[in-house]
Amino acid sequence: MFKSFTIAEGILLIVLGVLALIAPIKASFIVTAVLGVVFLVGGIIGWINNLSRSRGMKGWLVFWRLVVSTLFLVAGWTILDQFSTGAIDAAAQVATLSLAVGIVFLVEGIVAIIASLGHQEVEGWRWGLANGIITLILGLIILSMKAFGLLSVLGILVGISFIFSGIDLIAFASSFHGPDDNDGPQASAA
C-alpha cells in the first residue's frame, strides 16, 4: 500500500510539474492564490481552535496564539484581495510569494541532500541527492531574481521541482520490496 501510494504521489507531482511548465504564468498565480486560501483557512481554524481551548490555557498563550491566527487571516485576505484589485497588485503578490518559495526551496534542498546522504544504502538514493541539489539551486535562482521576471519563472521553477520530486518519490518507492511485490526476483527464487 505504501509503495503504491508513493508511486501515485510521484506520478501526480510529475503531471503537475509538466502542467506548470506548459503554463508558467498561470502556475505562478495559482500557487499564490492557493497560498492565500491556505492562510485564510488556517487563520479561521486557528481562531476556532484557540477559543475552544482557551479555558485550559494561560491567558497570555491564548492571546499570542490569536495574534498568530490573526496574522494568518490578514495575510490570506490581503493576498486574495490583491487578486481582485487587478493584475499589478496580483503581480506584486506573486513576487512576494516567490521570495518565500525561494527560502522554502533552499531549506528543502538542504534537507533532501542530508536525507539522501544518510540513506545511501537505499537503492535510488542518488535521485534524492539530485532532487536536493536541483531544489537548492532553484531556491538560489528564485532569491536572486528581479521582481519583473518572477511572473513566469516561478511557475517554471515550481514545475521543475515537482518533476524532480516526483521522480525521486517513484525511485524511492520502487526500491521497496514487500507484500505488493510478489512477482519480483525474490519471489521467483523461492
Describe this structure as you would to a colleague:
There is one protein chain. The protein has 190 residues and is mostly helical. The chain has one domain (2-176). 83% of the residues lie in helices and 0% in strands. The protein contains seven helices and no strands. It has helices at residues 2-22, 24-52, 59-85, 87-117, 125-144, 150-174, 185-189. Helix 2 (24-52) crosses helix 6 and helix 5 packs antiparallel against helix 6 (150-174). It is globular. The two termini are 23 Å apart.
The fraction of residues assigned to DSSP E strands is: under 5%
The number of domains:
1
- Major beta sheet summary: none
Residue-averaged pLDDT: 83
- Name the helix and strand elements from N-terminus to C-terminus, one letter apiece: HHHHHHH
Envelope shape:
globular
Please count the beta strands (DSSP E, at least 2 residues each).
0
Structural class: mainly alpha
Alpha plus pi helix count: 7
Oligomer: single chain
Low-confidence stretches: 182-190
Give the termini distance in whole angstroms.
23 Å
Helix-residue proportion: over 70%
Q: What Rg, in angstroms, do the CA atoms define? A: 21 Å
